[in-house]
Amino acid sequence: MLELFRKLFDLPPGASSFADGVDWLHLFVIGSTLLGVSVITLLALVFVIRYRQRPGDHSTPVVRVTGKREAVLVFGTLALFLLWWVLGYRQYLAMRERPAGADAVYVTAKQWMWKFSHSHGQIENDVLTVPVGRPVELIMISRDVIHSFYVPAMRVKQDVLPGRYVTLWFKPVRVGTYPIYCAEYCGVLHSGMLGEVDVLTDAQYSRWLGDAARAESLADVGRAAAVKHACLSCHTIDGQKHIGPTWSKLYGSDVTLSDGQHVVADAAYLTESMMDPAAHIVQGYAPIMPTYLGSLDSADTAAIVEYIRSLQDAPVSPSIRLPALQVAPTTSAASSQPGAP
Amino acid sequence: MTIAVEPVQTARAASASYATEQKSIRSWLLSTDHKRIGVLYFVATTFSLALGGVFALLLRIEHLTPGPTIMTALTYNRLFTLHGVTMVWLFMIPSIPATFGNFLLPIQIGATEVAFPRLNLLSFWIYVLGALVVLGAMWLGALDTGWTFYTPYSAKSPSAVVPTLIGIFIVGWSTILTGINFIVTVHTMRARGVGWMRMPLFTWALYGTSIIQVLATPVLGLSLLVVMFDHALSWGLFDPARGGDPVLYQHLFWFYSHPAVYIMILPAMGVVSEVISTFAHKNPFSYKAIVYSTLGISFVGFLTWGHHMFVAGMSAFDAGAFGVLSMLVAIFSAVKVYSWVSTLIKGSIVLATPLLYVFGFLFLFMFGGMTGVAVATMSLDVHWHDTYFVVAHFHFVMVGGTLTAWLAALHYWFPKVTGKMYSERLGTLGFALVFGGFFATFVPQFLLGNGGMPRRYYNYPAHFQTLHVASTLGSWVLASGMLLTLGYLMHALLRGPSAGANPWSSRSFEWRTSSPPPEKNFHGEPELELDAYDYTTPWQPLDSSR
Amino acid sequence: MTDAAHAAHFESAARQEHAARFGMWVFLGSELLLFAGLFALYGAGRAANPGAFREGITHATKTLGSINTAVLLVSSTSVALSVELLRRGRQKQSIAALCVTILLGIVFLALKLTEYGEHFREGISPGGAGYFFALHQAPGLALFWSLYFISTGLHAVHVCVGLVLLGLTTRRVLQGHIHSARFYTLHNAALYWHLIDLVWIFLWPLYYLS
Ligand code: HEA
Ligand code: HEA
Ligand code: CUA
Ligand SMILES: [Cu+2]
């Protein structure tokens, strides 16, 4: 049934875990539209024929609104719309809910190409290689104007903004190659900003990983980047508090924020911490970390996140004790802020 | 009842009508007569329609092949922007209110003029000035941002962004002034006896439209102003590198532009209410329901703008709220559709050309509106956003809805404005071509959108070609229907038989004076005791009495 | 013109007056939405960059700005006074009050220009140009100042329009076209002036205080 519907209505194959649900809703929405419009059109035709003007007296009676029938009709229609909304909103929320344990891929959009940096170190242009059956999370930013990442077969789309990381996820369920389009107008070659998603079987994917593996692991690249950008002047990797929280065992942990909320330190949160540190302040720390938006590129960001992730598996024991350190408080709220132990 | 007065008026019509009273060109261009201003607007906006139509045809021709066909990518991008700008601001927004609205609003409330006639003339010339600036900007190379001018692209685009925006800014002033004029006219110029709930529904629709025009347009003006500063002086208000937020621009733009789509559809709905009543010889099924849903659309329409931004990076909560509000605003349109169809019950229906167009409207608007609700269904919009599905949705409501209603109005009031009659046979043929052509043009676009064809694409993957070719062929049929219509209406204007005062035997107020009306609209005191929709009295064809 | 004179398309002079007054109110509604857009921009900008906006305000020309607030408040009073005086038929005094209003409007503009001058001297220009922004690098500071210049600039444009309007009205009062029985034109001009004042009352705390 769904396959037939897809054929009749020109829908692409359903290649992600969202596709079936979305297409069923599509079928329901278009089906009820076609039915409702046909009924009303038929009624109108019947009226036109039944009440066509005949020779003689053309005066017409006043038809009074009875109220009940009309109310049923109107509220029935409203109920139908609200049903669409409920179903659509639930699916939408599921799309926005970020899955646990997804592979993160960093996406940089620019006029007029897509760049994908995998957490395993591979970098691809205009081709996104992913394994079947595992969720992937895309952490995306634009270098210039707004673009929109759109894979019809996955039924996903997300605008990619300059100056702000946005995320999108999907779980491919069918092996194959599916086109990526840029769906937000971005200049002369907007229609040339194409790419494709390559969904591989697990075996193919590991082979691809092997082929593309680099001499240096991504975590090493990340460490180099962290050194280069002097992150380690504020953060430690051995579990000690410093000006900023330690990176040891940070990845995947539960972080308490200054407003009492909790977040899970996944790739998107870590990315946000670097690009927009003021957005979420860790409890017990001052909001003094500078933003790295613009100075850290996506590949380095991905590498640092991978480096932080690697610190969770092999905790480094404290080698040196850090000197006690007083942070100059920038705001009065931070005056109670503890320095290093 | 009072119907006997009409033949008398007809006899006088030939000698003194608004159109013949004074003949010089100057007396037209500087006239403060709302009827003449309506006609001036008609000429200017129809010119814009033709221009926008030519742009559309070129866009369609380009899509005959997946690769380059007749133009470069840059030309294509400029053309769809100009098509959108011309159609929306130069044609559609002033089309029905400033032409038919200007002509009819005072007559429908028994007044001799709008409240501020000189302001009305000023509005017209401001419109012309703005339109000329936009045309001048086209000559400078125009702009390639899309009619939505999204930042930061619009702040960087190396094209004539600023001149075009100045033009639209100026046209906005004309919209606001017309809106103020109409609101005040409705409040203060109603003749004795024309209470609020006795006003013709077209007037109500204009009133609702004017409210939106007055309240929404300044926000457009502001957003355009800021984009101009960003482009010309690189102030970067929406530039993330300087603390600005590009998505904020989208909020401002849609805060205007969603209500603006109701500026485009409400007057069309008013036309439909009038035409259905006249040709079914029947009072509207529920006058009150139509009035209240008009006001409902005017106000709730201000709260749904976010549905254009479901994938732009809004919070899921905001998206949900905008989604449900869109469902609520849609219900008012459904109320109207139900009321129109029910008006046919027990009527005495004459299937003349205007009514044919109204049925075209009903059918296409139902699809257009329902696909609007479909794209407001958020998970579906994720797939459809910025694809041809959305393009098809809005052409169904704007072309299938408003343009069709504009054609209905044109055929319905043609005898009123000109005093002449066109050929009914050609009218039916024109309708068939427009309706068939429209269907062939835009149904394939729904399927293209389902397949994932993004909009604003110059080139496209080859597997979309069949549907694109079908759409292009359809646009030729549609254009030939429009040209035919233009042709026979011109012919009727110059050579057509005289129509008589009230060829449709309508009871609406504007038909209770001669056609074309005299300069002061009525011959003496207007006869308004009989309701505008009272068809209960025996009716005889009036013109046979001449 | 006699008291009863009115344009031919109006039923009566009272109707015409009602139309003119009501039209002004509708127009003011439209204007309010224009500034509402600016306030929305400010709100969003401030929510995203609270620190930068607070820092921006510390560089505002607070004294001049506050004097200007007082100037506008007094001018609003004087224009209201001129309406009331004319209603009572005291044409001369009414004209005097109008002249005071116009004078205050000019003072406002002069002070505003002085403020702009001081900002430029401090290296603050709209759009984040100027050495001020090299010294103070909080992101969002450029946004604050651009918004400041757009908002106060647009307001100043309105002041200019208001002054022209008041000037023309004064002339018509002098010529006797506007008088105690037919003073709604003056009333409309005064309403417009009140709107200008009102908008400033909102701009002032946003850009100078807090
Ligand atoms: C005249 C213009 C007009 C009108 C009237 C509408 C009406 C509506 N529009 Fe549309 N819309 C546009 C013009 C218009 N639109 C334009 C120009 C765009 C694109 C802009 C751009 O991006 O360039 C757009 C885009 C657009 C989007 C964004 C899509 C996207 O970009 O992803 C959405 C999303 O919610 C939307 C929703 C709606 C809704 C809910 C209505 C509702 O008001 C519709 C209400 C009508 C009905 C509901 C019909 C009544 C039906 C019946 C009575 C049948 C009953 C049948 C049954 C019960 C089965 N519109
Ligand atoms: C009122 C609005 C309106 C109208 C009427 C139309 C009419 C048409 N539009 Fe348009 N369209 C838009 C508003 C409108 N459009 C907007 C806002 C966009 C988005 C732009 C953007 O992305 O930025 C768009 C985009 C758009 C696209 C997508 C471009 C892209 O994304 O790449 C296409 C493609 O096919 C298209 C086609 C057409 C066609 C074939 C018509 C046909 O219906 C045209 C037929 C009309 C004629 C051929 C005119 C003939 C008239 C006369 C000769 C005068 C007759 C006179 C009398 C009868 C008196 N339009
Ligand atoms: Cu990138 Cu369109
Ligand atoms: Cu909308």
Describe this structure in words.
- The complex is a heterotrimer of chains A (341), B (546) and C (210).
- With 341 residues, chain A is an alpha+beta fold.
- Chain A has helices at residues 2-8, 19-50, 68-96, 202-212, 218-228, 267-275, 298-313; strands at residues 103-110, 113-118, 123-125, 127-131, 136-142, 147-151, 156-160, 166-170, 176-182, 195-200, 254-256, 262-264.
- A 5-stranded mixed sheet of chain A has the order 3-2-1-5-8, with helices on one face. In chain A, strands 4-10-9-6-7 form a 5-stranded mixed sheet.
- In chain B, 67% of the residues lie in helices and 0% in strands.
- In chain B, helix 9 crosses helix 14.
- Chain C is an all-alpha fold.
- Chain C has 7 helices and no strands.
- Chain C has helices at 13-48, 50-58, 62-87, 91-121, 132-135, 141-174, 184-207.
- In chain C, helix 3 (62-87) runs antiparallel to helix 4 (91-121), helix 3 (62-87) packs antiparallel against helix 7 and helix 6 (141-174) runs antiparallel to helix 7 (184-207).
- The N and C termini of chain C lie far apart (53 Å).
- The mean pLDDT of chain C is 87.
- The interface between B and C is large, with 42 and 37 residues.
- Residues 46, 49-50, 53, 56-57, 59-60, 80-81, 83-84, 87-88, 91-92, 146-147, 391, 395, 398-399, 403, 441, 455-457, 475, 478-479, 482-483, 485-486, 489 of chain B line the site of one heme-A.
Helix-residue proportion of chain B = 55-70%
* Cα gyration radius of chain C (Å): 20 Å
Distance between the termini of chain C: 53 Å
Quickly count the helices of chain B.
16
List the secondary-structure elements of chain C in sequence, H or E.
Answer: HHHHHHH
Report the average pLDDT across residues of chain B.
90
H/I helix tally of chain C: 7
Counting helices, strands and paired strands, the structural category of chain C is: mainly alpha
Beta-strand level of the residues of chain B, as a percent range?
under 5%
The dominant shape of chain B is globular
> What class do helices, strands and sheet pairing of chain B give?
mainly alpha
Low-confidence stretches of chain C: none
Strand content of chain C: under 5%
Portion in helices of chain C: over 70%
Q: What ligand species are in this complex?
A: heme-A, dinuclear copper ion, copper (II) ion
Give the overall form of chain C: elongated
Biggest β-sheet description of chain C: none
Name the quaternary structure: heterotrimer
